[in-house]
Write a structure and sequence with these properties.
alpha/beta; nine-stranded mixed sheet; four-stranded mixed sheet; 9 helices; about 35% helix; globular
């Protein structure tokens, strides 16, 4: 009798929040959203972050467990993270990320260090580095991950919580970079890069020794520059709206799990794209 196949161990590292809307709230933060899809596509997901000793903190734990995500959460004296979501007159939404949240003070606990040592992939972005305390913890934990692990830098620029130094220090630790065309414009300006996307992305891949660079152009298409100079492109001619908020996290979670499960770049790209398209369709209108 053979044993069960071990699932990939995937870690989301950084912010955890509740998105507070006028009439409802839901668990948010890119790491948790990413893990939701990593788990859905076959990984064991673990969220390393911090919460407050409050009702929202307890709700975070409950919601993570509902989605099959293992909480690796420190309890701090600071309130659980919140993002206030407002509907704009144009019909869109604006978000205000509250300061001095629990995830701004993530400690390097024994549980976090033990979990990071088992990682097959670690996912992170810029937002959790907005305060020096969490910045130090996040960077130390990325550095503590196994050499063989994928280090997935999903840029996710938010408000003004990023700068050139943050971008560079994460690029230096990553071996996967994911960004969209608007984020590429910002990084291009910050790092003083010249040229078109098709020139810049392979240049970044070479400069920072990345395994994959993933670029999404709204709902139009996505491109992945991979190993052995392989470029895959997936177009979305039947999607007539911009990718919905959260589609990029779905893409990331599905892609890394597919790669860890032995899928080819093309197969992983198509799986990830379909996950993103499903988010768009489910939120249409």
């Amino acid at each position: 009798m053979t044993g069960a196949v071990k699932k990939p161990q995937v870690i989301g590292l950084g912010e955890v929040v509740f998105d507070i809307m006028p009439d409802s709230r839901k668990l948010g933060g890119a790491p948790a959203d990413f893990l939701h899809y990593a788990v859905k596509y076959g990984a064991d997901g673990h969220l390393i972050s911090a919460i407050g000793a409050d009702d929202l903190g307890r709700e975070v734990v409950s919601e993570l467990q509902k989605f099959g995500i293992n909480p690796v959460l420190a309890v701090t004296p600071y309130p659980t993270g919140r993002v206030l979501i407002f509907k704009s007159p144009s019909g869109g939404y604006t978000a205000h990320i509250l300061e001095n949240a629990a995830w701004d003070y993530i400690p390097a606990t024994g549980a976090a260090e033990e979990q990071i040592a088992t990682a097959d992939a670690v996912y992170f972005g810029t937002l959790a580095l907005r305060k020096a305390y969490s910045k130090a913890t996040v960077l130390d934990l990325i550095d503590a991950a196994p050499d063989k692990a994928y280090k997935f830098f999903d840029v996710n620029l938010r408000q003004n919580y990023y700068d050139k130094e943050i971008i560079r220090c994460l690029l230096e630790r990553a071996n996967i970079l994911k960004l969209n065309v608007e984020e590429l414009k910002t990084i291009k300006a910050l790092l003083g890069l010249r040229g078109y996307a098709d020139d810049i992305c392979p240049r970044l891949k070479k400069q920072y020794n990345l395994k994959y660079v993933i670029l999404s152009d709204s709902a139009k298409e996505s491109k992945i520059w991979g190993e052995d100079n392989l470029l895959t492109t997936v177009k979305n001619s039947r999607i007539h709206q911009s990718f919905a908020f959260g589609a990029g996290n779905a893409f990331a979670g599905a892609f890394i799990t597919a790669i860890l499960n032995g899928k080819s770049q093309q197969e992983a790209h198509e799986t990830a794209n379909q996950a993103a398209v499903e988010v768009c369709r489910s939120t249409k209108g």
